[in-house]
Amino acid sequence: MPECIELNIENEIAELWLNRPNALNALSAQLVGEVNDALAEVERARPRVFILAGRGERAFCAGADIKEFKPVATTVEARARHYSRNIFDRIEKLPMPTIAAVHGYTLGGGLELALCCDMRIAAENARFGFPETGLGTFPGAGGTQRAPRLIGRSQAMWMIFTGERLNASDALRMGLVNKVVSTDALMGEVCKIASMISANAPLGVQYAKEAILRGEKVPLEEGIRIETDLNMFMDTTDDYAEAARAFIEKRKPVFTGR
Ligand code: CO8
């Protein structure tokens, strides 16, 4: 049984909870290992939506476990350590929509985890920052790449160079999060969004995500070709026909994911 996380998959919605509230959900080696195992389970179960959240009142995640920090002698050892942390890329590559439900401290590797998700919904008490440069390093789990792509180079540089913490309304203004809700309402809001997504055609949602992610890496013209190819496939699906039938019959469509 995992000790540092919880994974619940119900009604095709997966909730992965970081669960070390006494350490503000810091990313210990054990927690990272358990997240890796949980992601394998999510990849196998293929839920419609994946939610990442943190237990306890004070933090989504306060970043790497500083108590486990150990300098290494060579970059060869450092490289081995980096590859053991592939949870970041793995979350980004999940085929279903992913939502980070963030509250309290969301720092360093915790913010980098949230940046791997497709959407971020924040509680009013959320506080965001990259403290790494004050710890003798810099964000190395995607922060220097994903933050500028999301909020722009200059804002990301400001956050990374200064380590200053943003509150939830600053984060919303910058586009770091999609929405801010009261702290008590956080999980209710995230579950509502997850239900809205899972009421839509599964293949429509999945291929939309694929088109967006693949399109980001190529020039617009090629992106349009990717979109067209995936979109033409949609026209052949049962759910496309079902949606038109349901519209004419004035009822809600029943999607099967085929
Ligand atoms: N690592 C380990 N333990 C932590 C961490 C952490 N990052 N953050 C908090 N804790 C522990 C504290 O040690 C304390 O434990 P204890 O009660 O046993 O002393 C408990 O959580 C509560 O914390 P505080 O008493 O410090 O609470 P405060 O309200 O005084 O302060 C802060 C809250 C401001 C969040 C403070 O705890 C803090 O500054 N924490 C460190 C935040 C930080 O610098 N994080 C970035 C680390 S670098 C990073 O994330 C790089 C990511 C690389 C990728 C990693 C992949 C695995």
UniProtKB/TrEMBL annotation:
GO biological process terms held by the UniProt record: fatty acid beta-oxidation
One MF term in the entry's GO annotations: lyase activity
SUPFAM superfamilies: ClpP/crotonase
Keyword Lyase: yes
InterPro entries for this protein: ClpP/crotonase-like_dom_sf, Enoyl-CoA_hyd/isom_CS, Enoyl-CoA_hydra/iso, Enoyl-CoA_hydra_C
Protein name in the entry: Enoyl-CoA hydratase/isomerase family protein
Keywords noted in UniProt: Lyase
Family in the record: Belongs to the enoyl-CoA hydratase/isomerase family.
CDD domains associated with the record: crotonase-like (cd06558)
Signal peptide: none
One Pfam short name: ECH_1
